[in-house]
Amino acid sequence: MEYLSRNLKTLKHEKAFHYHPMCSRLDLTHLSFAYDLLLFARGDVASVTLLHDRFNIFLAVSGLKANLAKSFIYYGGVSLEVKHDIQQKLGCSQGSLPFRYLGIPLDTKNLSVMQWQPLVDKIMARISSWTSKKLSYAGKIQLVQHVIFGIQAYWVQIFIIPAKVVKAIDAYCRSYVWSRENIITKKALVDQVFATIGAPKQASWMVRKILGARGNLDVISNRQIHQRNVIKQVYLQMLEKLAKVSWKGLMYQNQAQPKAIFSIWLQVQGRLLIADRLKN
């Protein structure tokens, strides 16, 4: 490839050759990495012919051969007649933007959210391959930090990732860490702990009541859980079915002062210390 680079640099001495408008200040004619090669020139037959001739010299010397089935031409502001002549000269078909180079889609403008889907799919594929492994939370966090964030950092070196894509990636990573799933879910660690932990012997009455509410959550349907009144549903489920009392309306629908209501409740329960009871 070094020979090809030196040979292409001699094109600047050719009067018939014209650089691509965005590459003239850099004297840029090509970019190469491994077996991927990008060639740049202005969209005229003379410039493309000179560029192609230099490339054919390299092929003859090295013995390599270009795969025309995987080679494409990309135009910008070129007439149909010139496009036809260039394609007849090179024997390549016309490609469409964006195209992938080193695993990253390239385009003449900012990538849309849909064009960032390959990055999301790549991260989802990695997470899907990890879901079958029984790792601790610390192990899953290490995978996310070193592998997923590494892939994300590679793309960040070239593009600015949109906030919507970053939120989607964070959601997939969060779901994998907390619930070991490859889909976005709101299931958290506290749900798993709440479902498996037992009440210790020294637990207080309040802790025992909270842990005892797990059975009531199983009774409530999923539709009711996703409603806003889930706390009310759990509370009603935890209430014991007691007989109705006649003084319910007197106590809970009374606009009197709290002290008066409390005195009424004592009287109903037979606990109000009146003069007769004080004598006894």
UniProtKB/TrEMBL annotation:
- What positions does the domain Reverse transcriptase zinc-binding occupy? 231-279
* Highest rank taxon of the organism: Eukaryota
Q: Species name for this entry?
A: Nicotiana tabacum
- The protein depicted here goes by the name Reverse transcriptase zinc-binding domain-containing protein
Q: Which Pfam families match?
A: zf-RVT
Q: Which PANTHER family match?
A: REVERSE TRANSCRIPTASE ZINC-BINDING DOMAIN-CONTAINING PROTEIN, REVERSE TRANSCRIPTASE ZINC-BINDING DOMAIN-CONTAINING PROTEIN-RELATED-RELATED
